[in-house]
Design brief:
- By secondary structure, this protein is an all-alpha fold.
- It has two domains: 95 residues, Rna Polymerase Sigma Factor, Chain: A, CATH 1.10.1740; 101 residues, Orthogonal Bundle (Arc Repressor Mutant, subunit A), CATH 1.10.10.10.
- α5 packs across α9 and α6 crosses α8.
Length: 208
């Protein structure tokens, strides 16, 4: 956590609404994207994001900067809330194809860029939809490492902090998850195989 974040958190604790607004702007995007890719539901992602920040307001004193960043702390809260939601509902909503949470066409915003394509390429757009669906069908422990490391480009260390596990566990789960994704995409036509190859290439780079 930077000194700026520490100061903002102190101000928020004292009731400063502007400090809370700044922290929300800085952190909400990563939480929303994580919840969206994990659940496939914009509604769930919005609910979880709001609940994360309500939890921060209620339990701000529980954050320990010596154990990681504020972002990792909040993602961890979001992860727990998602698991509670999954356990309660035991359903997954199909990933919204091509729309943002406010109904607009999804644009490439620099995040998970390898899985975002221009709308004028319908073949590749269909392939990306298949990949997103394949990610949603992974077991949760594999899905979350793919979302964190491949879609949100977190380091192994950052993912380990969010998941409260060893770095080696992140590595092994991610390797297994990429193998499962490759298997699920095997029957996809050539553009799909190129996307699957992206996961293999990223895995090779991380091992080097």
């Amino acid at each position: 956590m930077t000194e700026s974040e520490g100061y903002l958190l102190q101000c928020m604790s004292a009731g400063d609404e502007e400090a809370f607004r700044i922290l929300y702007q800085r952190c909400q995007g990563a939480i929303y994207r994580f919840a969206l890719h994990m659940s496939g539901s914009a509604a769930i992602a919005e609910d979880v994001t709001q609940e994360v920040f309500m939890t921060l307001i209620r339990s701000k004193s529980r954050f320990d900067p010596s154990r990681g960043t504020l972002s990792a702390y909040l993602l961890g809260i979001g992860r727990n809330l998602l698991f509670q939601r999954f356990e309660k509902e035991r359903v997954f909503v199909p990933f919204p194809a091509g729309k943002t949470h406010d109904g607009r066409e999804r644009q490439n915003n620099g995040h998970h860029a390898s899985l975002v394509v221009p709308p004028q390429d319908p073949v590749r757009d269909e392939t990306i939809g298949r990949v997103r669906h394949a990610v949603l069908t992974l077991p949760v422990n594999y899905r979350e490492v793919v979302v964190l490391c491949d879609l949100q480009e977190a380091t192994y260390e950052e993912a380990a902090r969010v998941l409260h596990c060893a770095i080696g566990t992140v590595r092994s789960r991610l390797h297994r998850a990429r193998l499962l994704l490759t298997e699920k995409l095997r029957d996809v036509h050539q553009p799909g195989r190129r996307v699957a190859a992206d996961f293999k290439a990223k895995s090779a780079r991380n091992r080097s």
